[in-house]
Design goal:
There is one protein chain. The protein is of the alpha/beta class. It has one domain: 3-Layer(aba) Sandwich (Aminopeptidase). It is 41% helix and 18% strand. It has six helices and six strands. The protein has a six-stranded mixed β-sheet, sandwiched between helices. α1 packs across α6 and α3 packs antiparallel against α6. 45% of the residues are buried.
C-alpha cells in the first residue's frame, strides 16, 4: 500500500491541501476497550470511523495516510514511522474511552502539551464532536501518549465517548453514529487547516 493514497489537489486559492495522518486505535490482536452490554470492540469502531474520515477528507481534496485500514495489529512505532516518513501535517488518532464505572459519557481530546498547533486543532475538533453528538465535553487534556510524543506533526488523540457506557456503546454500534462522528472529525480537520494557512 502506498503512503500517499491520493495526490494532493489544489484548493480554491491554488495551494495544495496538506497530507493528513489518520490513526484508528488498536487493531488485530489488540481489541482496545470492549463494551459490557454488546461486547463491542473499540478497534472495530475506530477503524470504521477512520475509513469514513479518510473518504470525507479525500472528497474535500485532502490526501490521507492511514496507520492501518484493515483489522490488523500495527505497533505504535510503525504508526509513527509511517506518518513521519510520509511527511503528514496533522495526525488525528481515533479512540473510544472506557471507565470502571458505566456512568462516564464525556468526549475528550489529548495533546502532548498546550500552546501549539495540536491544541489549536483539538480546540476545533472537540467542540464539533460535542455539538454533533450532544455528549458532555470533557475538555482538552495533556497526556504523554506515544503517538502524541513521537510524531513530528501536531497530533491529537480523540476519545469519542465511552464504550463502557451502555447507551453510548449501543450508539457506537450503529453505522449512523459512526458516520456522524466521522463527519465532525473531517469538518474539524478542514476548519483547522483553514485557520492556520
Amino acid at each position: 500500500m502506498h503512503l500517499r493514497e491520493r495526490s494532493p489537489k489544489p484548493d480554491l486559492k491554488g495551494k495544495r491541501s496538506p497530507l493528513i495522518g489518520i490513526d484508528p486505535g488498536h487493531g488485530g490482536r489488540d481489541p482496545g476497550a470492549v463494551g459490557r452490554k454488546l461486547g463491542l470492540q473499540e478497534k472495530v469502531v475506530t477503524l470504521d470511523i477512520a475509513r469514513t474520515v479518510s473518504d470525507r477528507l479525500k472528497e474535500k481534496g485532502f490526501p490521507v495516510v492511514m496507520s492501518r485500514n484493515e483489522d490488523r495489529y500495527v505497533p505504535l512505532g510503525q504508526r509513527v514511522q509511517r506518518f513521519n516518513s510520509a511527511g503528514v501535517k496533522l495526525v488525528v488518532s481515533i479512540h473510544i474511552n472506557s471507565a470502571r464505572l458505566g456512568e462516564a459519557s464525556y468526549m475528550s481530546a489529548f495533546v502532548v502539551r498546550r500552546g501549539g498547533n495540536a491544541e489549536r486543532a483539538a480546540n476545533i475538533l472537540l467542540p464539533l464532536l460535542v455539538k454533533e453528538m450532544g455528549w458532555p465535553n470533557g475538555g482538552v487534556r495533556e497526556a504523554d501518549f506515544y503517538i502524541l510524543q513521537r510524531t513530528t506533526a501536531p497530533a491529537v488523540l480523540l476519545e469519542n465517548g465511552f464504550i463502557s457506557n451502555g447507551d453510548q456503546e449501543l450508539a457506537l454500534s450503529q453505522p449512523g453514529t459512526r458516520e456522524r462522528l466521522a463527519g465532525a472529525i473531517a469538518e474539524g480537520i478542514e476548519a483547522y487547516w483553514k485557520a492556520i494557512r
